[in-house]
Fold:
Amino acid sequence: MCGIVGIVGRHPVSQRLLDALKRLEYRGYDSAGVATISGGTLERCRAQGKLVNLEMRLKEQPLNGFIGIGHTRWATHGAPTERNAHPHIIDGIAVVHNGIIENFAELKAELEETGADFETSTDSEVVAHLLAKYRRDGMSGQEAMHEMLKRLRGAFSLAILFQDDPSTIMAARNGPPLVIGHGDGEMFLGSDPITLAPLTNEVTYLVDGDWAVVGKTDIRIFDSEGNAVTRPRCTSTASADRVTKGDYDHFMEKEIHEQPEVIARALARYVDIAGHRVAPLSTGMDFANVSSLVISACGTAYLAGLIGKYWFERYARLSVEIDVASEFRYRDIPLSPHAAALFISQSGETADTLASLRYCKGHGLKVGAVVNTSESTIAREADVIFPILAGPEIGVASTKAFTCQLAVLAALAVGAGRARGTITEEEERQLVMSLAEMPRIMTQVLRNIQPKIQLLSRELSEFPHVLYLGRGTSFPLAMEGALKLKEISYIHAEGYAAGELKHGPIALVDEKVPVIIIAPHDRFFEKTVSNMQEVAARGGLVILITDERGAASSKLETMHTIVLPNLEEIVAPIIFSLPLQLLAYHVAVFKGTDVDQPRNLAKSVTVE
Ligand code: M6R
Structure:
């Protein structure tokens, strides 16, 4: 989604704004721009497409000035053109905006009646026009800001420059996060602390409804009523150093290969590996005494939650209500205050997941956040935080965050099982031993399957459609495999429960449709093999992903068989994620798509 940066500095800001925008690139965007004030005049440079275009423009037409704002735009209202790119400048007021102004049409009509001439088809431009109107009415910048904010409905964060006040940036937050960074005689603004990491680690988070006047050495923060408020200053642990590709071609590739290490780190937090127990730390939630569990999330995080549902039901005998957050928040679900809720989010900023969390909190449920970003809004609003410790994930396609989410959910489900007395101490020991072996197995799998996956990927990249099938926890994994493939290679892919094959998807099967069957040799294996035979009988191209036992017992001819080591049931979905991720990655590389920033997608979805 859109990203915001701002600097009120002691030195020229243009290059630093551009560098900060580069650190926001991972969020996804389709145009970008910066504005500075120099010699009492606003200067602006914008470009459609990637930041390299903006960089070229800035070389031709450098911007001067010690104060400035910048923006990467992920188009919501209006095409991703240069004209629609931010900052929008009206009457000496420059505005960058992240989010959606829901009542923009009504505001635009009202402003047009008073003579406003709109240059863009964005919702954001109304902010600049409203401010300009209030200034013409005689208000100061601060008064205009307060009045303008009262008129906006929706989710937004804003950074604003007034040409006649070259020492101040105004900022506001109602939804998408905004962080103020404290420098040495300079102040910064950013959509997240990673943006600011090389500039400062001392940050203040604005909370929803806040707006701020940011000077070189001071900030004044106000709530929505205009009362001065104090927000704590804290030290962020975000680091820009780690956010490099290293020896890899893409962040996604690097993040796939980081999994053994980050899973080991996550496990060290949640399980006592030597004692073969779930660590007491992970029982921040009283699973023994909850009536049921509610889980909600979006995208890949939702699919991790779906696998978690199987585990909580099986090991802890807890019934789980789960839905995608965009549905959950509006379903008017009757909720018992005795239930507990888990919200899963890599970024911790996903708007629908946050709204679902607030809905559950409002119903008195104890709320846990399974998050990668412990400083995020979801983490800060939850009662209990379960960090997944995956480290910064830059590729838009989630990989290591998914497997870390699974590792944490597995540990929590086993811990819940012990707390509820639904598994024995010996069963806990066995399960923890299986979890503890994952980093080693992952390293081995990543090393061994690459050549085969590359071969298969080259072939698969020629097909327009791919089906994924699985049973049990392999069903959500089939959906995750399909999601990964479609988002980065743009091949149409669908994941189904293998048992649903005959209820519709089999109609698609012919010799032009590869069907990827995820079938560890578990209690569903025989049934999945039957489905595989149904596909083969119709000429479908079977790609089997199984383990050694499965490969030995399946006699069917396949287009390709990927063989993993034999695994315990609890770790199978985590390890089986690896071939699916690698497959999507290599297909995308063969197709030449933008692996880390696929078209139309954003890393952090901060609006509905
Ligand atoms: O930051 P979150 O985990 O809340 O994000 C949820 C989804 O937007 C995310 O998982 C998305 O589906 C990924 N692009 C999938 O690879």
Q: What stands out?
A: The chain is about 35% helix and 25% strand.
